[in-house]
Design goal:
Layout: H1 2-39, H2 41-44, H3 50-55, E1 59-60, E2 70-71, H4 74-105, H5 107-120, H6 126-145, H7 153-177, H8 181-189, H9 194-205, H10 207-223, H11 226-229, H12 249-256, H13 265-304
Antiparallel strand pairs: 1-2
Helix pairs in contact: 1-13, 4-5, 4-7, 4-10, 5-7, 6-7, 7-10, 8-9, 10-13, 12-13
Protein name: Phosphate transport system permease protein
Family: Belongs to the binding-protein-dependent transport system permease family. CysTW subfamily.
Function: Part of the binding-protein-dependent transport system for phosphate; probably responsible for the translocation of the substrate across the membrane.
Length: 305
């Protein structure tokens, strides 16, 4: 009787886990298929070219089924790229510094206090980041640079950098901890200083994990909508510099999708922008898997050698 119960439980939970995994795969494929169906309507139903969508800045889609508007989303695409690139440039050095401090300089203090504090940032809602950015950061930028207003690429980049900081820091710290201690002992035995061990031994060995953290942080930045929309200025124009306002893909979708007529040209082009974000996210996932596979191949070659 007990053996039958154990057999039933084993196969039941195995089947349940398999079903959950299959459901996630089917759900992902369904979302992709739905976005393809909706997003391609801009090109198939209304006859616009991909060149117009990606490279034109003329934005005047018709909120109706008659079509004939202009769907150049270059401003939004450039806005997403510029804000995310700036956020990555700001967050990466701080993330590296925090991760190295937690793992190499003060591991006890880092594990007990600093890492829990860093991970706490992940649980803060994005609207809180946006509200703090709008009420504190935007006025500070306005007063510091003597601007009419402080809504800008710089404000969006700083807010995004704070949001992706814990992701990059946590993954980088895990990558540094995964480096075998024998590497450090061997380097110290050869007379290397702590900085030389960190810079010339630990960081190169953890390179693939660090790159994974950077890609995950960039993916988080591309997908953020609310916090960015509150500080970027939402201006349909290319920014002249980082102090100029602009707009991006997520902010445009979040603000305009609710008011666009279902099935109309305006609605379709917003779905096309959503499809673009979905494809960008898939691209980041493939990059992470590529980095992981390279790391596994190097480990196998090292063991075989």
């Amino acid at each position: 009787m007990e053996r039958k119960n154990m057999f039933f439980k084993e196969h039941f939970f195995k089947g349940l886990i398999t079903a959950c995994g299959a459901f996630v795969i089917v759900l992902t494929l369904a979302i992709g298929a739905f976005l393809l169906y909706k997003g391609l309507g801009t090109f198939v139903t209304y006859g616009h070219s991909p060149l117009e969508f990606f490279f034109s800045s003329d934005w005047a889609p018709v909120d109706g089924t008659e079509g004939g508007g202009k769907v150049g989303a270059a401003v939004y695409i450039f806005g997403s790229i510029s804000t995310c690139a700036l956020a990555l440039a700001i967050a990466t050095p701080f993330s590296f510094g925090a991760a190295i401090f937690m793992t190499e300089i003060a591991p006890n203090f880092g594990n007990k206090l600093l890492q829990p504090v860093v991970e706490l940032f992940v649980g803060i809602p994005s609207v809180v980041y946006g509200w703090v950015g709008m009420t504190v950061l935007v006025p500070a930028i306005r007063d510091l640079f003597h601007l009419t207003h402080g809504y800008s690429v710089l404000a969006a980049g700083i807010v995004l950098s704070v949001m992706i900081f814990p992701t990059i820091t946590t993954v980088t710290a895990d990558a540094l901890r995964s480096v075998p201690k024998d590497y450090r002992k061997a380097a110290y035995g050869l007379g290397a200083t702590r900085w030389q061990v960190t810079y010339q031994v630990v960081l190169p060995a953890a390179k693939n994990g660090i790159l994974t953290g950077i890609v995950l942080g960039l993916a988080r930045a591309f997908g953020e909508a609310l916090a960015v929309a509150m500080v970027i200025g939402k201006t349909r124009a290319f920014p002249k510099n980082i102090l100029s306002p602009t707009n991006n893909l997520t902010a445009a979708i979040a603000s305009d999708m609710g008011g666009a007529m279902e099935g109309g040209e305006y609605n379709m082009v917003l779905w096309t922008m959503a499809l673009l974000l979905f494809l960008i996210s898939l691209g980041f996932i493939f990059i992470i898997h590529f980095i992981s596979s390279r790391s596994e191949q190097k480990e196998k070659k090292g063991k075989e050698a």
